[in-house]
Amino acid sequence: MKFKYVAMNARNQKKEGAIEAETQNQAVAILREKGLIVQDISQASGSEPTSIWQMDMGGDIHNKKIKKKALLMLFNQLGMMMKAGINLSMSMQIMIDSEKDKSIKNILREINENLYNGFTLSQAMKNFVGFPGVYISIIEAGEANGRLDNAFMQCALICKKDIALSGKLRSAFTYPIFLIVLVIALIVILCGFVLPTFKDTYGSFGAELPGLTLALMGFSDILIGYWWLIILVCVGIGVGCYTLNKNSAEFRMGFAKIQLKIPLIGPIVRQSALARFCRLMSTLTDAGIPIHKAMALARDAVPNLYVKDQIQYVLDDVQIGVTIHEAMAKHPVFDAILVSMIRVGEESGMLGDSLFKMAELFEDQSDESTQKLTDAMTPIMTVVIGVVVGTVVIAMILPMFGIYNVIGDATTT
Q: How confident is the model at residue 10 (pLDDT cuts 50, 70, 90)?
């Protein structure tokens, strides 16, 4: 298999190229024999892995994603062991021995082997997509300043906050979705199963049915007769939206903008995105990472595409010498208080502290908005359910007056 490498020769000149070898470690050994000190090496695209632990159930471990909870545990344990005075190699070996997940064990095993071959931890991690660039940059900074234990704890803190924020978002949207599904199920049951039982009864008396009853009967007939078409249309819409979201940048951007404009939901999406951005920027700048790189890494971690796009505009301005607060002031997605706090941070040289405080503020606002959504959805959906049930009940009761008239006429005759 082929590996791309960046190395330094005896004259301290940079060399780049590709080399054929069975494993990455063999490639490093070959380059060392040639008098080259490897700075970075990675598998070339299109190359097939051959190492025993490079494959896991038919998949390349270099492309395997690692769950956030697993990353949190990994960073926490490595940070605690290094603070206790255990060196990195020994810490890695302890993690390998105690890890139960085969894929993660194999990833750690290869990283540890690369450490023995002269790689830094950040260089070894770059070969795996399971480690986001944010964490690699913090670890790289920790290697540079000799505080790798602090770097691990910073990564763990980011991971912990990210998990908590994601959990809050899930809980915020789970309850409304449940209520919506409940209303749809109620409509289907009433119109698909309850109303049809009354239809034959009303028809046997030959009474004239009210317009509301006729409308619901018609809807019931459509639901029963064309349920397969309704499902097909819903599936088609879902597949169409998924395809557009995957292939159309305009659709993704439009959907991201719509998310921010939805009442009750929009504020949660925006506040959570800004909280994540501020949290990462604070950690990255405090770790000594240059502001441009820190902003680019924080931008990539923001889930909403429109907010991410606005951050890119800010980054473009900052790269030509504009201050961050001046660049942000041009875009309404950034609160006035955020712009003011960043200005204070820039002028006082305490940008990290200002961003940390804003991250806490946005997280609190996100919690409040989530509570507002939950509090508002309960009465709204209660009213909707009451209207649906009440409409169906009224539609079933109204024809009874017509039946009484028919029976009365027949008795008189």
A: low
